[in-house]
Amino acid sequence: MPYYRSVGEVPHKRHTQFRRPDGGLYSEELMGQEGFSSDSSLLYHRHPPTAIVSAEVFPAPAPKRSANLPLKPRHLRTHKLDAGPADAVLGRHPLMANDDVRIGYAIADRPSPLYRDAVGDELLYVEDGRLAVETTFGTLEAGAGDYVIIPTSVVHRIVPLDGPARLLTIEANGHIGPPKRYLSVRGQFLEHAPYCERDLRGPSEPLLVDGTDVEVLVKHRAGWTRHVYARHPFDVVGWDGCLYPWAFSIHDFEPITGRVHQPPPVHQTFEGPNFVVCSFVPRKVDYHPLAIPVPYNHHNVDSDEMMFYTGGNYEARRGSGIEQGSISLHPSGFTHGPQPGAVERALGVEAFDELAVMVDTFRPLDLCEPALAVEDTAYAWTWNR
Fold first, then answer.
1. Any binding-site annotation on 304?
2. Which UniProt keywords apply (predicted)?
3. Which of 242, 245, 217, 227 is nearest to 50 (CA)?
4. Mean pLDDT across the stretch 342-364?
């Protein structure tokens, strides 16, 4: 994270004695990235965070992937996915994946198990509903339009509030954060960045939960394991540092516009290993007298483009069948652009009311079985009208 936070009780000096009211020592835990060479936080537990009483292989389902063959654009209707009883971890529908990132969708109506993703950071986007993300650092509440970033190996659970919640899930094989070009050498957001520290939310107080023999599911590079901890991992009385879960609303993203059409990098919100995440929000559009506000036809030779349509009217796709909750995939090797008639309709338009999340990957995305089950197979031919 780009800035330091301190929550709860911490000692004046790090790596020094910090005693409980009964005189015993709190257990200090350093959670850090890149082998003590990058962002980290220090957490202070009531009990040793290392004490487990059992470990066993957990038979989590392994999603089957298939290449995008024949190569063509795809349209997925996430609202047609099974909305049966499910949680936001084990109930995710895997949609697309490569060796860098996995993209899924969840319709959660119950709390998830305690979970730790030891492979990489996770990014959740809340399409609809409200939820609480309970973590060792405290609780984050999120609602429609919120992104939530959960750093690698943070124990957490996702709890829907006031009914089911719909989530786009992005699981990285590494870390997700603001683009480096938005940050100073010391990690402060720069003046040209479309959001800043004031827009970010972190846990504000410790979440203290008692319990013994507590199960935590761990996804790691070799598979899944079920650990049983001697004490509940949510026993942290305080922490400080620059590594923690945080939330950011897409509605706080300030769009960058120009006299002529601006390319997708102006919408970039996050970067991960071999992929980027962009936010398309309501905005005034190009103001050159001869401007064409919708995107030009383009062929991203190095990336696949996934777009999740989450609100408003996406003018460039009108007439293609795209609707709330749709996902489009425009792969490398295919030239795509506005639907027929979109260019003419956009002339003279002053503003677009659209909301979408885009993920561009620099390796091809495979398709998973749930995606093929809700595919609109007519989409590839909608430009030929």
1. yes
2. Dioxygenase, Iron, Metal-binding, Oxidoreductase
3. 227
4. 94
Residue pair 130/142 in contact (Cβ under 8 Å)? The answer is yes
Percent of the chain with pLDDT over 90: 90
Residue 309 β-bridge partners: 356
- What would the mean pLDDT of 321-327 be, rounded to a whole number? 94
- Going by the DSSP 8-state scheme, the letter that residue 177 receives in this structure is B
Secondary-structure breakdown of the chain: helix, strand, coil percentages, each rounded to the nearest 5 = 10, 40, 50
pLDDT at 372 over 90: yes
Question: Is 12 known as a binding-site position?
Answer: no
What local confidence, expressed as pLDDT, does residue 13 receive?
A: 97
Q: Which residues contact 24 (CB under 8 A, 6 or more apart)?
A: none
Same fold, 5-63+82-249 and 254-384: yes
Rounded Cα–Cα distance for residues 249 and 143 (Å): 9
Distant-in-sequence contacts of 192-201, Cβ < 8 A, 24+ apart: 194/253, 194/254, 194/255, 194/256, 194/266, 194/269, 195/248, 195/252, 195/253, 195/254, 195/269, 197/2, 197/3, 199/248, 199/249, 199/252, 200/1, 200/246, 200/247, 200/248, 201/140, 201/246, 201/247, 201/248
314 annotated as ligand-binding: yes
Closest CA to 73 of 262, 270, 299: 299
CB proximity list for 50: less than 8 A, separation 6 or greater: none
Q: Are 216 and 114 in contact (CB under 8 A)?
A: yes
Q: Give per-residue burial for 145-176: e unless 16+ CB within 10 Å, then b.
A: bbbbbbbbbbbbbbbbeeebbbbbbbbbbebb
204 is written with which tokens?
Answer: 């504000």
Nearest to 172 by CA among 102, 269, 76: 102
Residue type, 218: V
C-alpha distances in Å from residue 173, one per residue of 56, 61, 266, 274: 23, 18, 25, 9
List alpha helices for the chain, DSSP H. Answer: 342-346, 369-373
Mean pLDDT, all residues of the chain:
95
Q: Is 316 helix (H, G, I), strand (E, B) or coil?
A: helix
Active-site annotation, residues = 261
Instruction: Indicate whether 101 pLDDT > 90.
Output: yes
Decide: helix, strand or coil at residue 70. coil
CATH 3.90.226.10 fits 5-63+82-249, yes or no: no
